Amino acid sequence: MIKLQIIGNLGRDCMVKEVSGKNVINFNVAHTERYKDSQGVLKERTTWVECAYWTDKTAISPYLQKGQMVFVEGAPEADAYMNKENQAAATLRLRVSNIQLLGNKNSNNEQQPAAASNYNNAPASYSTAPRPAAQVPASNDGAADDLPF
């Protein structure tokens, strides 16, 4: 299995659709890398990732707005194609299995929508991956455990 993890900002508000009776939340994440080239000139490179989050729980969708910083992980897909200028291009897609909101996109006093007015009440993380079962320690009937501390 290949897993890709991305931290970036949403390029537009998400769109929720129903496809064959299942919900999918579509959004784009941009990751911008800043670096210096061999001459010391500061450069920027932005990578866009199209994300599809298949879920029954769409409660996170009001918080997935343009500019919101998120952490997403899932299975990547890449598609190659010829663009309008007849040059080779590629698209990076991610089938999201986990998403977390990072920070507050409205830190510069922008108007917040009613649904996102209190980030303390916002769900911080969503995942479609099954959670592991809780491990119950076995009883050792009072015998000393063999842990060194």
Secondary structure: number of strands: 7
CATH homologous superfamily of the domain at 4-107? Nucleic acid-binding proteins
Approximate helicity band? under 10%
Order of helices and strands: EEEEEEE
Q: Which CATH architecture of the domain at 4-107 is right? A: Beta Barrel
- The gross shape turns out to be globular
Question: What's a quick, concise take on this entry?
Answer:
The chain is mainly β and 149 residues long. It has no helices and seven strands. The protein has a five-stranded mixed barrel.
Descriptive keywords:
single chain; 5-stranded mixed barrel; OB fold (Dihydrolipoamide Acetyltransferase, E2P); mainly beta; globular; 149 residues; 48% strand
Account of the protein in words:
The chain has 149 residues and is mainly beta. The chain has a domain at 4-107: Beta Barrel (OB fold (Dihydrolipoamide Acetyltransferase, E2P)), CATH 2.40.50. It contains no helices and seven strands. It has strands at residues 4-10, 15-19, 22-36, 42-54, 69-82, 88-102, 125-127. It has a five-stranded mixed beta barrel. The two termini are 37 Å apart. 14% of the residues are buried. The model is unreliable at 108-122 and 133-137 (pLDDT under 50).
